[in-house]
Every structure is written in C-alpha cells, then in structure tokens.
Design brief:
- By secondary structure, the protein is α+β, with helices and mostly antiparallel strands.
- The protein has a domain of about 60 residues.
- It has 2 helices and 3 strands; from the N terminus they run ααβββ.
- The chain has a 3-stranded mixed beta sheet, covered by helices on one side.
- A hairpin with a 5-residue loop joins strand 2 and strand 3.
- The chain is elongated.
- The termini are far apart.
- About 5% of the residues are buried.
Length: about 90
C-alpha cells in the first residue's frame, strides 16, 4: 500500500495556493471620506474621550492621545489623523 505522501505526488502536508481573485472595478458608491454619520460620530467620540488632541507648542502629542486634530471646522466637526496606537 502506498503512503499518503506518495498518493499526493510527494508533497505531504503542503496545501495548494489559491488562485488570486479576479480584479473587479470598484463601484463608486462610497461617500467621500469624513462626510458620513459614522465617521463624524467616531471623531466626536475621539474628542470626548481625549484620544484626539492638537499638538503642543513643542510639536508633541499629549500622552493619552492617539489622533492629531488636523483641522477644525466652524460647525464643530474636526478632521483627525492617526498618530500612534495605544497599548493597554
């Protein structure tokens, strides 16, 4: 009787690579970045928790902050950029 490696052509334990998925054109249905309700809520929550802050005069980010406030709009919304990850 043949061993399992001989039945598979000598490649015991190796899996075949899956073929790459065909490239499909993306539908342009997503709203522009920063204008949907979910992202506005996310930024608002970052500001409330203190995880988004402006840079200090020395150009440093406060210790508890993970995002930098890049731009503040007159309507109270803000544009933020991730600066670092937080280690719990």
């Amino acid at each position: 009787m043949r061993s399992s490696s001989e039945k598979k052509g000598g490649r015991a334990g190796r899996k075949r690579a899956k073929p790459a998925a065909p490239k499909r054109p993306r539908a342009n249905t997503a709203p522009a970045a920063g204008c949907d309700e979910a992202s506005q809520r996310f930024v608002k929550d970052l500001l409330v928790r203190g995880e988004a802050a402006k840079l200090t005069k020395e150009g440093k980010l406060p210790l508890g902050a993970t995002h930098v406030v890049v731009k503040e709009n007159a309507d109270g919304t803000a544009k933020v950029q991730r600066a670092r990850y937080r280690a719990f």
